[in-house]
Write a structure and sequence with these properties.
It is built from nine helices and 17 strands. By secondary structure, the protein is α+β, with helices and mostly antiparallel strands. About 30% of the residues are buried. Helix 2 links the parallel strand 3 and strand 4. Helix 4 runs antiparallel to helix 5 and helix 5 packs antiparallel against helix 7. The protein is globular. About 20% of the residues lie in helices and about 20% in strands.
Length: about 425
């Protein structure tokens, strides 16, 4: 089940009047990663103060009890419901023009699975489900289904890059290969991808799981391989993104949605060498307070200079030996030409740029010009406009997980 603190995502406050005037009518659009739909919540600036995201805890109280037809909820200054609306015009959901599989030549050699073939088993987090399907030999495959239902341009770019990165990654014992590209059933548009599901949970989830010295060796070797051979910077190495393959006791690094290839997507303060230092510290001590510090404000000295790393996890090697190994490895990477080595990786991976969907070339009305004529526009548009123009719109909406009968019979898949 999606963690409560990760379920609802606010797009901020919109004021009809001064934001500091408590009487100003206000609305907030909140995306629900559980139901995969937008809900508008209305009130005044007295309740919805700027940048406080009060709308999230207010909506959390009753979001599971709303009809799927409800598009907007009005609340008083105490956050209590005074009115609901089922008017589709209240829905400000943006249209995502998923690319037809036939137009994405870079994926034509990938195996595919239809969305209707996936059976939902659990909702692991925002944009990732535990699912299963029957393959061509009628064998049941349990997979992690990763998708992007949110319109933000950066998320669309990240989804495109992560899919192609998985597709182009060489086979490696510490990496998750692409399983299948997921297509919706009407127009065969690309809406996500699957990877094999690895049971047992992450190292963040399983703090009682022992950590071996060989795991540290595997990770440093993997980071060197990604950075210096393939030209890939993961940029989000953390215990929550580390699994253990029960079949061969190999560490698995996953979740490449923040990954950079070459200079594209590269962010200051998110390099994998620093990521390894913070990760080993958290794995050993269980202290995750540094994850709350923005990456641009973090530096390795915050953990490297600590005299003690008190261990709360079973280890097969002294903490001092693990720290010495880590520091020796960091010294090999913190050289003057390390970035040059990364940018000139001999087997650098690459893939096509995200194309602009043909759907965005269809013009739509966007108000009026000064002379009273219709103003026409192209590009991104909301879902209601796309429907008016007869364009295909994929509907992600689904019931809240708490209402699904089958969840009562599913044991925790991460155990």
């Amino acid at each position: 089940m999606i963690k409560p603190q990760e379920r609802l995502q606010s797009e901020g406050q919109c004021y009809f009047g001064p934001g500091d005037d408590p009487r100003s009518p206000t609305y907030c659009n909140v995306w629900d990663w559980d139901q995969l739909r937008m809900i508008k919540i209305k009130g005044t600036a007295k309740l919805f103060r700027r940048d406080e995201d009060v709308e999230v805890p207010v909506l959390r109280r009753f979001v599971d009890f709303l009809s799927p037809k409800v598009r907007a909820v009005t609340v008083d200054d105490d956050g209590l419901i005074t009115e609901i609306s089922t008017d589709p015009e209240e829905d400000d959901t943006a249209h995502i023009a998923y690319l037809p599989f036939s137009t994405v030549a870079s994926l034509h050699d990938c195996r595919t699975v239809r969305y209707s073939q996936l059976q939902e088993l659990d909702r692991l987090g925002p944009g990732i489900d535990l699912s299963s399907y029957k393959d061509e030999e009628h064998n049941v495959q349990k997979v992690a289904f990763k998708f992007n239902a949110f319109w933000k341009p950066r998320r669309l770019q990240m989804a495109w890059d992560e899919l192609h990165l998985h597709k182009t990654l060489p086979v490696h014992p510490n990496l998750m290969p692409l399983d299948r590209v997921v297509l919706e059933d009407v127009e065969s548009r690309v809406i996500g991808f699957t990877t094999k599901f690895i049971p047992g949970g992450t190292f963040f989830d399983k703090k009682e799981r022992p950590f071996r010295f060989e795991y540290l060796q595997q990770l440093t070797q993997l980071v060197d391989y990604l950075n210096l051979d393939l030209g890939i910077m993961h940029q989000d190495i953390a215990p929550r993104n580390l699994l253990l393959n029960p079949e061969n006791q190999q560490i698995l690094l996953f979740d490449f949605d923040y990954a950079a290839h070459g200079k594209k997507g590269l962010q200051d303060g998110r390099d994998d060498v620093a990521g390894m230092a913070f990760t080993l510290y958290e794995l050993i001590t269980g202290d995750d307070k540094f994850t709350s510090i923005p990456h641009w404000d973090r530096n390795m000295a915050m953990v490297q200079d600590l005299p003690e790393w008190p261990s709360v996890r079973e280890l097969d090697t002294d903490v001092s030996m693990m720290r010495r190994f880590l520091n020796d490895w960091i010294a090999t990477r913190r050289t003057d030409n390390d970035m040059e080595r990364y940018l000139n990786a001999p087997n650098r991976l690459d893939w096509p740029e995200l194309p602009t969907p043909a759907d965005y070339a269809v013009p739509f009305e966007l108000g009026w010009n000064e002379d009273g004529t219709t103003r026409w526009a192209t590009g991104a548009r909301d879902k209601n406009t796309a429907i008016e123009k007869g364009q295909f719109v994929f509907d992600w909406a689904r019931p809240p997980q708490c209402r699904l009968k089958h969840t009562d019979n599913i044991s925790n898949p991460l155990n």
